[in-house]
Design brief:
The chain is of the alpha/beta class. The protein has helices spanning 2-5, 22-31, 49-55, 83-86, 90-93, 95-105, 190-202, 207-225; strands spanning 11-14, 36-39, 63-68, 116-120, 147-151, 155-160, 168-175, 178-184.
């Protein structure tokens, strides 16, 4: 779809799960040099992003960026849980949101590599009888990760579709080992999407802006490729 849209659009927003790999993303951009491509990074445009970034500064201690659901596997058995169609599971569905926040918090994100990371498939289709996010396709496919964790040292990112524990969708900051502030995230407000789109349009001819978007998007894909 992105390849087709690239023939006709000045700007193309690519929603998660992105494309198959960092190499594929780079090829997509090179095939359409006249089109501006940008992963949908709506969380970077939240009204309180600067407040979160200040509170999450590494000097304050470890910041935990978490998107842990109680039971929200997206339509189990559908294309969401089919690796051949979705490229992965929660690592491609929710982890991109957390990585885009990390990029706003950590000035040296370009040089960041996980100290430790893992992704796991903790559930199978026959173990999932319902979900808060769509009906179960009982004769479908479930072959993707539903848990993902990335430890950058000062920042720990965790995404989980189905923990069966109370949901924790928030940025947790700490100081001297003690939790100081929690920024609840929840579903991203419409205003963040609007600001993202308006910013992109306003910067249509700003090469520096689009170079940054490409660098962010490639780093995100590379990080997920290496999990």
């Amino acid at each position: 779809m992105s390849v087709v849209a690239g023939n006709f659009c000045d700007i193309v927003f690519i929603e998660k799960p992105g494309v198959g790999s960092a190499d594929a993303y780079e090829k997509l951009c090179s095939l359409h040099p006249g089109t501006r491509f940008m992963m949908t990074k709506n969380n970077q445009y939240r009204d309180n992003i600067q407040e979160m970034s200040t509170a999450a500064h590494p000097s304050t201690g470890v910041t935990r960026i978490r998107w842990i659901n109680n039971d929200r596997i997206p339509k189990p058995g559908s294309w969401f849980t089919t690796k051949a169609k979705a490229f992965g599971g929660v690592s491609r569905d929710l982890m991109p949101h957390l990585l885009s926040l990390y990029q706003m918090f950590e000035p040296d994100w370009r040089d960041s590599k996980p100290k430790w990371a893992k992704k796991e498939q903790r559930w199978s289709l026959d173990q999932v009888s319902n979900s808060d996010y769509g009906d179960v396709v009982t004769d479908g496919v479930y072959d993707v990760d539903d848990f993902c964790y990335i430890d950058f040292g000062d920042y720990q990112l965790e995404a989980n579709w189905r923990s069966l524990e109370p949901s924790d969708i928030a940025v947790h900051t700490s100081h001297s080992g003690k939790r100081t502030k929690v920024f609840e995230l929840g579903l991203c407000p419409e205003s963040a999407y609007q600001t993202m789109i308006e910013t992109a349009v306003e910067n249509l001819n700003n090469n520096e802006f689009w170079q940054l978007q490409t660098e962010m998007d490639l780093w995100m894909h590379q990080t997920l490729d290496n999990l």
